[in-house]
Amino acid sequence: MSGPVVLAAQYGAEEIIIRPAQVLRYLGMGGKQPDDQMAELMEQCVAEFKTAASYKVCWLTADISVEEVGVAFGFFYAPGKSLAHNLKGCKRAILFAATTGMQAEQQRRRAAVASPARALVLDAVGTAAVEALCDHFCADRRAELGGQGLRPRFSPGYGDLPLQLQRELLACLDSHRKIGLSLSASMMMTPQKSVTAICGIGREGCSAVSHDCEQCEKRDCAFRL
Ligand code: SF4
């Protein structure tokens, strides 16, 4: 029996917008204005990161069966209420893994030896970049769906969805071969700036262009995470 069809795509550095406000947020300075020195360091780190990043995503679309306390994907079962709530009413879902690549990881490790401050900023830049990559990828898929919507992406570790599900997700996505993303015995992804997630396809979805429930003003949204 053949497995699900896994697709893969690579994005150019110019397509993924790393926003300074997001970098500040991941530095724990959200809402504050950086001083000149920090602003310059952030600018340098974004430019540096862009030269090393290799943005790749692999994904598959699966039929799903949503139950009260879990979701069956055919090739694995995801237990818990949180994902079941997020996917309520969906018959299909997109499962994906995204990474910014190994070179960006090595760049951050090298920086940590020479300048911990620089490594800290590069770390925040990497987080902002992989989140932006996921948003970009989801916007592409949403555009293909016509009348249907895409639910906000849901990752292992959110709500009561076990982090261990990352292993099944990455295995069915053949992520090591497709995009060079693997998982250690202690559940650490390599490269570290990577994300796995599930997005339900349904009649209703997330209406925000850049999915970020924390920043979104739609307070009454039924899909808020
Ligand atoms: S709260 Fe906003 S960002 Fe979150 S799911 Fe709803 S529309 Fe999307």
Write the layout of secondary structure elements.
Elements: E1 7-11, H1 20-26, H2 36-52, E2 55-63, E3 65-67, E4 70-72, E5 77-79, H3 81-86, E6 92-99, H4 102-114, H5 116-144, E7 149-150, H6 165-172, H7 175-179, E8 182-183, E9 189-190, E10 194-202
Antiparallel strand pairs: 1-2, 2-6, 3-4, 4-5, 6-10, 7-10, 8-9
Helix pairs in contact: 1-5, 2-4, 2-5, 4-5
The chain binds iron/sulfur cluster.
Iron/sulfur cluster binds at residues 152, 206-208, 211-213, 216, 218, 221, 223-224.
Helix content: 25-40%
Q: Beta-sheet strand percentage? A: 15-25%
CATH architecture: 3-Layer(aba) Sandwich
Counting structural domains, the number is 1
Shape: globular
What's the mean pLDDT score?
92
Coarse structural class: alpha+beta
Alpha plus pi helix count: 7
Question: TL;DR?
Answer:
The chain is α+β, with helices and mostly antiparallel strands and 225 residues long. Helix content is 38%, strand content 20%.
Overview of the structural elements:
This protein has one domain: NADH Oxidase (3-Layer(aba) Sandwich), CATH 3.40.109. Helices cover 38% and strands 20% of the residues. The protein is built from seven helices and ten strands. The strands form three sheets. A five-stranded antiparallel sheet has the order 1-2-6-10-7. The protein has a three-stranded antiparallel sheet with strand order 3-4-5. A hairpin with a 2-residue loop joins strand 3 (65-67) and strand 4. The mean pLDDT is 92. Iron/sulfur cluster binds next to loops.
